[in-house]
Amino acid sequence: MNYTFALTGNPNVGKTSLYNRLTRSSRHVGNWHGVTVDKASKKASYDQNEINIVDLPGFYSLTVYSFEEEISRDDILSGNNNLVINICEASNLPRNLYLALQLLELNVPVMIVINMMDELHKRGLTIDVKKLEKHLCIPVVSVSAKYGFNGNDLLSGAVAYAQEFKTNRVKLPYLSKLPLKKVQEIISPNLTKSGLNPIYASIKVLENDSFVIDKLELSDKQKSQLNSLGDYQATVAKLRYEFIDQITDGVIVNREGTKKTGKLNASIADNADKIMLNKWLALPIFLLIMSGIFWITFGFVGKFLTDLLDGGKDVLVTWVNGGLDSLNVPEWMNALISYGIIDGVGGVIVFLPQIVILFFFLALLEDSGYISRVAFMTDGLFRKIGLSGRAVFTMIMGLGCSATAVLTARGLEDPLMRKKTVILTPFMSCSARLPVYTAIAAAFFTSGSVAIIFGLYFLGAVTVVILAAIFQKTSLKSGESSFIMEMPKYRMPTAERVLQIIGNNAKVFIIKVGTLVFALNVIVWVLCNFSITKGFVPVGGGESIMEKISALIAPIFAPLGFGNWQAVTALMSGLVAKEVVISTITSLGGVENVFPDSLAAICFMVYTLLYVPCVATLGAVRKEVGVKWMIFGLILQLAVAYLAALAVRIIVLAFISGLLHGIIVLGAVTAATMILTAILGLMNINKRRCVRCKANCSSCK
Ligand code: GDP
Ligand code: MG
């Protein structure tokens, strides 16, 4: 038989962890709310049954507020699922059951999986699942998805229940306390067309759920009839929670079997926030953690491993070059293989250790739950500049990969805030830009290279803050964010997960370098070494196709100090993938030959940090917020990168040569800021249709 089982539940309860176990996948898991922003499905098999398991974004209630939550609600309402597996967090059972009750009201087949039992067990507690089963008349099982977990046990119960399910047998006593009959009488003419379940629709109407109300297409008369019934929004919630209190009374027991009625004991990890979020200590701790990460990634372990690989690569280049030479291979082919491919592509591969270390730390930030603390700390600042602490998750994910990070902005409720977050995230320095900084900084600033790299990451973050603040002064101003922070528990990743993170990221990086970067490198090399009329020409003679094109563009970059064709070629190829920037520079003579001085090198790094990240990110931005915003972001990125690199150059020059230059700098930077503000003001870009209701509505703005 074929079945479809959907995994639902509140955010951060382990849905994706369970999905990965059941389907042997490695979907992104993280200890914060809003990691999963889209639907995924994969087949699992059990006892000759083929089961399509669907992983959904988390949500708290069938009344939803954000784009990602809509995905989950629509999936549940679609009626496509033979079973909805509602995952609940063991230590947070009452709140998690709030969604379970709504699924029962909707009368879809539901099974409850109580996850993270290990956390309860550590406190000497367990859950009386039989008692809960009796109250709700549905199967309830308890598991720890993160540790030893038998998917077959779960699937066998699930399949059996899906086969026998006809209707939910539980009597939800609170329903009789609501005027559901009256509501149904009023909305009954519209029910069939809407395709909604009558009980669900009636309760949601009482809860003022705008989706259901719109879907029913109620007339003004019906609306006023409903209004006359009174406001039941708070009552519905209160009644559900009263019922939950009843059914969970005495369900958490200690492992010997005695009832546990008091509060759960707080663990040491729960108290860690007293230090981590302490008024005076929070910021120093944050800076300490970030500098530690940078020091290990760029200065200590990472650099050592990269240098080791780099040495090996140089030996290989010399060896292959000599070997091909002795075999009398044509000169152009030897150059392509030795310098274009091995030196160029190898020049990127050597950064594998640093990329893996960076991703490892990002995963640690996520899994430990520290990211949520950072969001909490910065929420105040972000609110002031028209974003919210929720945007911080997206920004930090941007340190890994901009293209995947912009997707996580779906969790932002406010459509305008979401758009701003999407176009600002690429200013955060993604991992593909790391090789550029490391290679250039190592060549020009041997001792202070970690500080320079740290400075670049900092500049990326500061640019986000400054631009967001500027947006607040234009028509892109956002109102107060309604984001309510939820603080996950501190959790540590298992060794299995650490190996998975390292393996996955190494794989992704190697595949990208082996395919995209490799192909691009060959194309760029050919364009740099061939002329249309003369065939193979020596690089640097000004005759190759690329030299001619880049030389036309190069003067634009002359004020930034790197107006040469090699740097321009690197920037252009970097539009496809940032990793290619450094492989191009390596195959065009190396960092020292491309940049005349260290100031030009710094300006190039600043430009690389801030200009358009890559085509994949542009594609993701377009998909998330539309083509108009993508173009706006693109222009913004090019303009900001140029102005910032120019400002850095002028400031450094002013430092070197005195006050007069200083005044010019201030004037230039002020003028640049004013021009940018004026452009933003003129664009008036937010007066457009709302993504949620597809109209010019004021409530969704
Ligand atoms: P989702 O948001 O519901 O998809 O949850 P995830 O699968 O992303 O997991 C959220 C966090 O809970 C991650 O840090 C997981 O490692 C952790 N987690 C998942 N299952 C368990 C479990 O059984 N026990 C413990 N202690 N942590 C878990
Ligand atoms: Mg998930």
Written description of the protein model:
The protein is built from 32 helices and 10 strands. The relative contact order is 0.07. It has 701 residues and is of the alpha/beta class. The longest helix is centred in the C-terminal third of the chain and has 35 residues, at 495-529. Helix 14 packs across helix 23 (449-472) and helix 15 (301-326) packs antiparallel against helix 17 (352-368). The structure holds guanosine-5'-diphosphate and magnesium ion (MG). Residues 15-16, 35-36 line the site of magnesium ion.
Report how far the terminal alpha carbons are from each other.
46 Å
Number of strands: 10
Backbone shape: elongated
Strand order of the largest sheet: 2-3-1-4-5-7
Poorly predicted spans: 683-691, 694-701
Q: What small molecules does this complex bind?
A: guanosine-5'-diphosphate, magnesium ion
- The quaternary organization reads as single chain
Rounded mean pLDDT score: 89
Question: In a nutshell, what does this entry contain?
Answer:
The chain is an alpha/beta fold and 701 residues long.
Topology (elements, then pairings):
Layout: E1 2-9, H1 15-23, E2 40-46, E3 49-55, H2 67-77, E4 83-89, H3 93-106, E5 110-115, H4 117-121, E6 125-127, H5 129-136, E7 140-142, H6 151-164, H7 180-194, H8 198-206, H9 210-216, H10 220-227, H11 233-248, E8 252-254, H12 268-271, H13 273-276, H14 282-299, H15 301-326, H16 331-349, H17 352-368, H18 370-384, H19 389-397, H20 402-405, H21 415-424, H22 434-444, H23 449-472, H24 495-529, E9 530-531, E10 535-536, H25 545-557, H26 565-573, H27 579-587, H28 591-594, H29 598-610, H30 615-625, H31 627-657, H32 659-683
Parallel strand pairs: 1-3, 1-4, 4-5, 5-7
Antiparallel strand pairs: 2-3, 6-8, 9-10
The chain binds guanosine-5'-diphosphate (GDP) and magnesium ion.
